[in-house]
Structures are given as structure tokens and as C-alpha cells.
Design goal:
Layout: H1 3-7, H2 10-31, H3 35-41, H4 46-74, H5 76-95, H6 100-128, H7 131-163, H8 167-186, H9 190-193, H10 214-220, H11 222-225, H12 228-252, H13 257-273, H14 275-285, H15 288-306, H16 314-331, H17 335-343, H18 350-377, H19 380-405
Helix pairs in contact: 2-7, 2-8, 3-4, 4-5, 4-6, 4-12, 4-18, 5-6, 5-8, 6-17, 6-18, 7-13, 7-14, 7-17, 10-18, 12-13, 12-15, 12-16, 12-18, 12-19, 13-16, 15-16, 15-19, 17-18, 18-19
Length: 416
């Protein structure tokens, strides 16, 4: 066992990374099911509601641009605290939004905050988790997101039942962002937990030149980003689009906000329950063993959903397909973070991970917009069917390029 393996302990990162991430995720996932209702109360139709919901992922894309350089300079914990504060501001702005444009802008701000928060935790785990634990650690990180996807919608549904006001869920998001920030202030800095001297990592305190910007990293890494990155971006887009499609689809077939929150909460539990299995399979057998079932499963679920909109049992079909999509997504818990970590420089991962996440989030932003555009031109079922076909294309791309760019065998450490 290597020195890094002996030094690593799961409990050393549980409090510093997983707990704040869980709290932050609960708030985000509580809000997602009620965005269509919030938008419709401000006078938008279903297509406008889908566009406003997609502002979350557009915000993530925008947030990826400066996040890598900022995190490299100020450190992961400080960046996460700032991101929690920014998300809290976005939640309060959404509460008092007088019209749909303001609501969309607030969702954009929350998305920017989510990008910075997510990149900071990803960079930390890439730096300090030994490769033999990497997929399990990043799957556990993805699992904390998925646990948030379980608790958040149920918490939102409870508030909706008690208050009848979708805005109450926004107050919940603001409160949880405050709690996440306070946890990060109170808990020990991850660098101190693992005994890493402040400023010892490349890029953390040094001010870099433009040659090290996100755009330069995108250019220097274009070979991997234009091949494997495209497949990863499509999978990321599928995952983000489902968070837009499922609440909007539920509204289109007559489900109320509380019922939608409960259904998505149950789906979130199914998703969460598979995170450790997915990580174990990835560490034991390799990356393709989870990423392909994930991409193919979500794509198949989208195509099946598109064919059920006008059936007599459309609500039952919605429940069954939402659970199937959750099953496929859960198997791929943490897989895109794992691929990014495999490809990044472990000594200074934030910049490449910023480019990697930017590419993934570009897909995450583009595919929901494709859905809303096709829905505006044609119908929502046709848009979802197109999404599923695009997903199959992403699965083929991943099958070709994962093994070309990620040559490590399961458990193998990269050369120094």
C-alpha cells in the first residue's frame, strides 16, 4: 500500500466535503420541482417554464469560466463558502422576483454558484484521494448529491403541503445555503485535515498569466475535449435535461407540485441507492462498465417517455419511466467526475477540471435548450424523443473514446 493510501481515511473528508455538499444539494433539489409552478405564476406557459428551469444549467456553464482560476488562487473552502453565499442571494432574489425574467436571472445566479461549489469539491477530491479509491470517493461525492435529490423534493413537498406556497421552497434553499456556509466556516479546512501545508499545491497562491486561463486550457486539451469530452457533454446534457423535462412533463399531464416532488423524491432515492455499487464497479472493472449503461439507460427512458404522453395511463407510465431513468443515472454516479480526475494533473487539477466541467456543462446547458426549442417548434414529446436519439449518439462516442484516452487499468496509479 502506498503512502498516499495509508494517509487517506474516509472520515478525513466526510465532514469537510460530503456534509456541506449534502446540505447544499438538498436546497438545490428541493427547488427544481417547483420551478415550473413559480414560472407559471408569473405568467409563463410550459415552454417558458422549461426555459427558466434551464437557466440553472446555463448558469453552471457561465460559472465554469472563472471558477478554476479563482479556486486555484483562494482555495477550495473559501470558494465553497463564497458560492453558498451567492446561491443564498439568488434564492432571495427569486422569492421577490416580480416577473419571469427576474426569476430566470435568479436561477442563473444559483447555477453560477453551483458551478463554483461543484468544481471546488471536485478539485479537492482529485488532489487528495488515491487512485485506487478514486471512483468510490467520487461516487460517494455523487451519492451525497443524490441523497440531496432524495431529501430535497420530499422537504419541498412537505413545505408545499404545509404552506401551499412554492416560494417557501426558495426560503428553504436560502436557509440551507447559509447552513452549508456556516459548516464550512466551522469545520476544519480540508488541507489541514490531511496535513497539506497552505500554498503547497501548484497554482493555489500563485497568480497565473493568461496562458493558464480556461481558454488556453481548452485549447491545449482540445484533442481529448473534442472527442471524449463531446460524449461526456452529451451524457451531462441528458442528466441536466431530465431535471428540466421531468417536472415540465409532470405539469403537462396534470400532476400537481406536491405529487411531482414526491415522485421525483422517490426517483432520487432509487438514484442514490446505487452510488456505492456504481463506484465499486468502476474501480473494479473500469469506466465503461458504468458509463455506457448510464447513457444508454437514460436515452432509452427518454424515448419511452416520449411515446406515453397521450396514453390512458400516462401518469403511471411517468412514474415507471422516472424510476427507470433514476436507476440508469444512479449506476453512473460520479463517473464524469472520475473521468475528469483521471485526465487531470493531480498536482494542480483545478484548471483542467474547469475546462472539463465547462465542456460537460456546455452539453448540460445546450441539451435543455434543444428540448425547449424543439418543443416550441413541434411538441414536447417530439423534443424528448430527439433528446433520446442524441443520447444514443453520446453513448457511441463514449464507447469509442473512453478506452483511447483513459488507459489506466482499474486500481493502477498513474506515473509520477
Amino acid at each position: 500500500m502506498s503512502t498516499a493510501d495509508r494517509a487517506f481515511r474516509w472520515r478525513s473528508v466526510a465532514g469537510a466535503v460530503f456534509l456541506p455538499n449534502l446540505v447544499f444539494s438538498i436546497g438545490q433539489y428541493a427547488v427544481i420541482p417547483v420551478i415550473p409552478a413559480l414560472a407559471q405564476r408569473l405568467g409563463t406557459d410550459l415552454r417558458g417554464a422549461a426555459l427558466i428551469a434551464s437557466m440553472l444549467v446555463v448558469g453552471q456553464l457561465i460559472g465554469d469560466i472563472p471558477s478554476g482560476a479563482i479556486i486555484a488562487r483562494i482555495g477550495e473552502r473559501t470558494a465553497m463558502i463564497a458560492a453558498a453565499g451567492l446561491a443564498m442571494i439568488g434564492a432571495v432574489a427569486a422569492v421577490f422576483a416580480p416577473h419571469a425574467i427576474m426569476l430566470g436571472a435568479a436561477m442563473l445566479v444559483i447555477g453560477v454558484a453551483g458551478a463554483a461549489f461543484g468544481l471546488a469539491r471536485h478539485a479537492f477530491m482529485t488532489s487528495f484521494v488515491p487512485l485506487r479509491f478514486r471512483a468510490r470517493a467520487l461516487s460517494a461525492l455523487g451519492g451525497s448529491d443524490r441523497l440531496g435529490a432524495v431529501i430535497g423534493p420530499f422537504a419541498g413537498a412537505g413545505l408545499l403541503t404545509l404552506t401551499g406556497a412554492p416560494h417557501s421552497v426558495l426560503w428553504l434553499l436560502g436557509a440551507l445555503c447559509l447552513i452549508a456556509g456556516l459548516l464550512l466556516v466551522v469545520l476544519r479546512d480540508p488541507d489541514e485535515v490531511l496535513g497539506v501545508p497552505r500554498g503547497s499545491r501548484a497554482g493555489q497562491t500563485e497568480v497565473r498569466t493568461e496562458a493558464n486561463s480556461l481558454w488556453a486550457t481548452l485549447a491545449s486539451s482540445r484533442r481529448v475535449l473534442l472527442t471524449l469530452g463531446v460524449g461526456a457533454a452529451i451524457l451531462s446534457g441528458l442528466r441536466q435535461a431530465r431535471q428540466v423535462v421531468l417536472p415540465v412533463w409532470a405539469a403537462s399531464i396534470g400532476l400537481d407540485e406536491a405529487s411531482t416532488s414526491v415522485i421525483l423524491g422517490v426517483a432520487g432515492f432509487v438514484d442514490f441507492s446505487l452510488f456505492f455499487l456504481g463506484g465499486w464497479i468502476t474501480d473494479r472493472f473500469g469506466r465503461l462498465w458504468t458509463i455506457l449503461p448510464c447513457a444508454i439507460g437514460i436515452s432509452t427512458g427518454m424515448i419511452a417517455l416520449a411515446l406515453t404522453h397521450d396514453l390512458g395511463a400516462k401518469q403511471a407510465w411517468f412514474v415507471a419511466i422516472a424510476l427507470f431513468i433514476a436507476l440508469a443515472n444512479g449506476l453512473g454516479s460520479g463517473i464524469l467526475m472520475t473521468l475528469g480526475a483521471d485526465l487531470a494533473d493531480r498536482r494542480n487539477p483545478a484548471r483542467f477540471l474547469g475546462a472539463w466541467r465547462f465542456t460537460n456543462d456546455a452539453g448540460g446547458a445546450l441539451l435543455p435548450i434543444v428540448v425547449t426549442t424543439v418543443a416550441a417548434i413541434a411538441t414536447l414529446p417530439i423534443a424528448v424523443f430527439v433528446l433520446g436519439i442524441l443520447g444514443y449518439g453520446g453513448a457511441i462516442t463514449l464507447r469509442i473514446f473512453v478506452s483511447r484516452h483513459v488507459s489506466l487499468k482499474p486500481g493502477q496509479e498513474p506515473p509520477a
